[in-house]
Automatic annotation (TrEMBL):
This is AraC family transcriptional regulator. InterPro entries: AraC-bd, Homeodomain-like_sf, HTH-like, HTH_AraC, RmlC-like_jellyroll, Tscrpt_reg_AraC-type_HTH. The keyword Zinc does not apply. It comes from Paenibacillus hemerocallicola. Pfam families: AraC_binding, HTH_18.
Amino acid sequence: MDDMRNSGRRSGAAIELYLRHNRPGTREGCRMDVRLETGGRSYTIDHITTNLMTGRNDIRGVRHSHPVFHIMYILEGNGLFTVGRTASEVGPGMLHIINPNEPHQFHFGTNGPLVNLESTFVLRDRSGEPAEINLFDMIEENRSIRIAEPLRVAPLSVPHRFRPMLAEGYRRILDLYDIPLLKSHFAVTVVDLLTRVETIFSSIVQSEGEPHTAEETVERAKRFLLSNRHRPVTLGETAQSVHVTPNYLCRLFKEHTGDSPMGYLQSARMREAGSLLAFTDLPVYTIAEKLGYEEPSYFARLFRRAYGQSPQTYRRHRLSADKPE
């Protein structure tokens, strides 16, 4: 057989596609075989199914495992995905990868109907057996990067600039269901989807700096919160800034600081509020605005809870304490 290699490499991408065409005149004609080459190993791609799932509301599956990959991308709604011992809340824009034989359970639609794209496939070794390999390990080897544990164990909040590209990868697979003559191309489009996933993870690690440890993820989140303390900021955007889910970020924060992300932000704001009251003559409502609080009355309640007195009383006490004898 003639062997045509179409690697499609882009700045180091090492997921390669091999197309095998039989010689003309043979009994098998022009049948096309596709293999995925990565890390010096060769796999055939056995596409199981790819679907756009809609309307799943409060549907809980059973915990199970099998030798397939699930690439799950959430478009709308919420759910709770448990992989191994890690339970993660998922929402729009989140990508979750389940590797072969990882025990998992899906609860779709925990807060309204869930809409998601999902692709399921098997990579088979040369003997035809399902290969128990880890997609994150493949990406690391292909791109010469390291994907830290926080990015492996929780759903990835896909940066907005990559979301259309990822959705297009699923659509290319779905389009083949309408063209019977092209169903043999499923393996090609699965490799295309994998390359898009690889590109997203590689870009996040290389361009924004990889969090090598859970502690570094927490520190990056702290820096984001402190740099945005002068405006309203949400837990969701904080988690997205470090590419983890809100649920996972809260768990990391609790483990490493004893506080929640928003509790940490509130404490930082209250410390700054105390300084502004003591050393400036800014009105209370202006201080509230400078610290991201749209309602001065809400700011005052939080301040009283932190200091045991109102902002005005705190200012009077500090001013009288600082007066020279």
